[in-house]
Amino acid sequence: MKEKTGKHGTGTTTSEALLGILSIAPMSGYDMRATIERSIGNFWNESFGQIYPALKRLTEEKLVEKKAERRKGHPDRNVYSLTAKGEDRVREWLEVPAANEVPRNELLLKLFFGGHAPVSASRESVESFVTRQQQALKRYREIAKQIRKEHSDDPRAEFWLMTVDYGRHYSEAMVKWGRKTLKELDAIESRAQEKSARKKRRE
Amino acid sequence: MKEKTGKHGTGTTTSEALLGILSIAPMSGYDMRATIERSIGNFWNESFGQIYPALKRLTEEKLVEKKAERRKGHPDRNVYSLTAKGEDRVREWLEVPAANEVPRNELLLKLFFGGHAPVSASRESVESFVTRQQQALKRYREIAKQIRKEHSDDPRAEFWLMTVDYGRHYSEAMVKWGRKTLKELDAIESRAQEKSARKKRRE
DNA sequence: GGGTGCATGTAATGGGTTACATGATTCT
DNA sequence: AGAATCATGTAACCCATTACATGCACCC
Description:
2 copies of one chain form a homodimer.
Chain A: H1 14-24, E1 27-28, H2 29-39, H3 48-60, E2 64-69, E3 77-82, H4 84-95, H5 106-112, H6 119-150, H7 157-202
Antiparallel strand pairs in A: 1-3, 2-3
Helix pairs in contact in A: 1-4, 2-3, 6-7
Chain B binds a DNA duplex through residues 2, 4, 11, 13-14, 28-31, 46-53, 56, 73-78.
């Protein structure tokens, strides 16, 4: 018999992310989307196609409450907030240590099989990856600055900064690896060209 | 109108991984599972529940060929190999640069909301993560050594080593981040304890 | 006889992405 | 009038995990 990681909602999915977001402040589904993108968008995304059905289920389970809000000059909206039960659920969820899953990595998969295609193909993948990581690094520095400026009083800001710091460590390492790998790919290519040049001379 | 990343199979999924594996050597579905675990298991996993149905589809699409193998002293098995069409497909797939997706990261999600639970909860998550990364680091060093020993002649080995090197860069950075983060979590906790101690003294 | 490893599959379930559909308001 | 933004939702489709089911061979 095996222990299961998730069964009746112990796993981490859209619902947990939404409960987490609502633990920061009550808001509408529309706002959740934007808040998620701004705050945890570097490691977690949600689409409307997931958010609205999830909010429906969470409401049925009495983990969140919906309040219709009518405002002049704006469309109506439904503002959701955590119930006491919802707050408990967030705490319970946080008490379960995060699983150490192995996420699928398309870049590495393609690179692993890189020998079966022109080197330029691998090069492009790695190059675009490095560019992305450099941009991310810049972004992380800005985000950290902003958090320290705007939320220096909030005790939760320290946790937010830890996740930003993860990004910094990650992206820095990835840029280093990427540059090194690009050099190695170039070496492979120039060796291949030498080889074909020698072949031509012989012909 | 938006460009779609994947439509009729341009995406990267079980099928592509299997085609890639078969580009290295023909083998049975059972062997694919084991091979995947040994070779790309650090960034890509497949289960039998995916492998067998995928092989069926790939056979129908004439991308792979099945040959029944009967051997005395062993159960029968189906050995799959790439067709010419399958080899083309692998090359086409490799020519499309890897997408820069944002994988969901449960550890960071929980850490982000860490302020809503005891610090010990965050601590456990990070601690287990660091341990995992340290083990991975050891494994990577062994794998690299083994590849250099057993496949020094194979030109594809260079690509394999690049993926191992990714792991090394990644895990090293993650161990650094994890240790730093554990220290910060400890600081938060001791500050909280001081606070409650002062409170007690006042009572 | 029972455990382990080899070997192949199916079914149930859950969950995520995308496209589609609708409609108000505000700005140009 | 038309585009952009706010706002909520549904439906189709794809993909993955897990559990279940089966059976042979080999060794103790």
